[in-house]
Amino acid sequence: MQTIKKYVEANKQRFLDELFELLRFPSVSADPKYKDDVRNAAEYVAEKLRDAGADNVEVCPTAGHPIVYGEKIIDSSKPTVLVYGHYDVQPADPLELWETPPFEPTVRDGKIFARGACDDKGQFYMHVKAFELMQETGTLACNIKFMIEGEEEVGSDNLGTFVKANKQRLDADVVLISDTAMISLDSPSLETGLRGLSYLEVEVTGPNRDLHSGVYGGAVANPATILAKLIASLHDESNRINIPGFYDDVVELSDVERKALNEAPFDETDYKSDLGIKALWGENGYTTIERTGIRPTLEVNGIWGGYIGKGAKTVLPSKAHAKISMRLVPNQDSNKITALFSKHFESIAPDYVTVKVTPHHGGQPAVTPTDSIAYRAAEKAIEEAFGKKPIPTRGGGSIPIVSLFEDELGLKTVLMGFGLDSDNLHSPNEKYDIANYFKGIETIPLFHKYFAELS
Amino acid sequence: MQTIKKYVEANKQRFLDELFELLRFPSVSADPKYKDDVRNAAEYVAEKLRDAGADNVEVCPTAGHPIVYGEKIIDSSKPTVLVYGHYDVQPADPLELWETPPFEPTVRDGKIFARGACDDKGQFYMHVKAFELMQETGTLACNIKFMIEGEEEVGSDNLGTFVKANKQRLDADVVLISDTAMISLDSPSLETGLRGLSYLEVEVTGPNRDLHSGVYGGAVANPATILAKLIASLHDESNRINIPGFYDDVVELSDVERKALNEAPFDETDYKSDLGIKALWGENGYTTIERTGIRPTLEVNGIWGGYIGKGAKTVLPSKAHAKISMRLVPNQDSNKITALFSKHFESIAPDYVTVKVTPHHGGQPAVTPTDSIAYRAAEKAIEEAFGKKPIPTRGGGSIPIVSLFEDELGLKTVLMGFGLDSDNLHSPNEKYDIANYFKGIETIPLFHKYFAELS
């Protein structure tokens, strides 16, 4: 631990500078106009892996954005850790809500503000620096492989193909991912489950052209009104999702499991005041921790139709659209839910409109075992670095790759995340605490040490 | 009639060229970035009034866009016709749906395609040319005054002030407006009523920032979902507007009046196929003609919230918005309805969101008498020009000025419109038939002739 602390202390400024350089690439995978920036971010990651001492570093082309691979095989008899992360980021808009430019990292009271600061540039880069540390101090205890992709925020469309085509190269004993949150530095935690995702876009079409709302209003169905009615019908009075068969495969937790889950510290008053809301909302009969961790959800991520510019336009729009995503829990199947939603949405559309449902992407839910060598190694590492045993939690987010790894490589994943729920992931003013960044760099080598010892 | 036809025949091309020049000004009153274009359009109108022989032509400044005034007083003992029109137009978006540029007028099979072709540049300009015709052929039968404004599409905010301040100058015997539609050249009609308008914008706010839908989804109310539920609740199962007191002041027509109204030719099959819809929608118990003419309506003119760009973003938005307008019928009061809507919308908002309602603009409904000299003059003019007596109809649109004239100047209005419902008012590919343009120029002098004779 002393070696680690000394090395981090001696290199703090450079560790920050390198991350800032990475954060300056607007590597927004969703928007084609950033294609080159995404590519440049990949090249930068590759360069840094080489500098840190990785071998066979390659920026692997895919049908979409490239995947960066690198490895260090010290001894084939030692266990191998496969590190996964993503260098792409969410779109930064609404830009006007950022206090400082999203791609010009800025430090305010100990926090790095930038798109991707936490999700996931700041988190995966800890592994690059931890690897450098182990390499430079000759403490590398496991073989290590890196796979850093550029399409996580758009559904990892091409990762499956890559993994299937590179099973040999990706062969390992465990997958280590830092792309989740812990409760706080005082209450370190480890996520033991992730929700799956089903993301669709719906289009409701009424008349074949925009109409004058005075001439046709009242006689022709308004697709914006109808879309509103359709969306309103997707949750019932108890805020349960109103799609036939939606809950069929949901695994209900035992009272014991629910009790354990709810022991994680949670202050509803702080939670509400942080969000500036007067009341919480959600599925009746479940706590906030359960609603965000073990229950499936349906959210409207975007809605638009008609005239949305300045001033007033008395138009009856031809079309209205919405982006809708569902978070899934074990054992829901992303493809099955996508099909259920499409079938249901089309079935409830009245005959005075036509609806089109287009799936965006999905991912399977996953649960990680708490009795594995890898989990125990992570537990010991965090306990030593934080002086506290981590609390097992269930995360609300989705990392489709987790189930992909299990299915294709037969590998379990450890979700050792150092972010915070308050890091504004996917929101303006995304941040990552500098303390968490360095704490992560200190913890990771300990994971490798204990994973080697326990294996 | 021969004099008229001869003069029109001899000047057709110039009449078209001048209108095209007027249509090339993107005089969009709603969008500040077109301020200068609006101004230039006003100057052009003034210039053309002078060319046609009007006196005291002036581009009168207002707090917003200017009002063009001009007059020709031939004999104070003769009746005076006040012509009202507007040179401003609706925004042209969605631009991609225009087959030819909105501000580059193009003729396709006898129709002029351009924003404002019918609403209202093409229609008010007929009066300028009809005035020129009467002037040049020495057939001017009435004194004539022009008031052409530039804010009709944004609620005529400054017209009231102007009218109040210029009662002397605007003194007349009747107001003549061409800003409405007739059934067809084969079935000429005269509108005897107009709906009023109440236009508001609503904002629903949930959390104080955009959130990650995986981390917070299911536990925090989504303002887009809540807005959808609120909008869905504004119409009941019979598609009646679900706002307490909304129908209190609505004047129900007698069965006789309804019967007369429904005698206007209407083919539901043609209507639906023109709009590309399988079924009609509307308030139960009323025909399409009634739904668009004598019944109040509520339409969503625009809705937006969350991520509406390309691709997918798993965000739980902080805010969602909608532009909502209501068409009002006699004796509903625009201000009262605006207040009722605001009060109701705020009252139904659940405590996990906050809502803000901002009124845009409004206008009072109006009915024009069919037993007046002016109406009979219009009837005779149309009968002579079209060879058919016009059918009295009730228009769905709103021209707030009509009630303003009645209240401030004590003047009745004649709505002698030559447009068609199919002219794509407020829509892409707005058009105006060249035949209607010239027919209007022929009909207007006959109105002046008969109005003078009958007075």
Automatic annotation (TrEMBL), chains A, B:
InterPro entries per UniProt: Cyt/Met_Dipeptidase (IPR051458), Peptidase_M20 (IPR002933), Peptidase_M20_dimer (IPR011650)
GO biological process, one term: proteolysis
Keywords, comma-separated and alphabetical: Hydrolase, Metal-binding, Protease
One matching Pfam family: Peptidase_M20
Record domain Peptidase M20 dimerisation: where: 193-352
Organism domain of life: Bacteria
Keyword Thylakoid: no
Gene Ontology terms for molecular function: metal ion binding; peptidase activity
UniProt xrefs under PANTHER family: BETA-ALA-HIS DIPEPTIDASE, SUCCINYL-DIAMINOPIMELATE DESUCCINYLASE
Name of this protein: Peptidase M20 dimerisation domain-containing protein
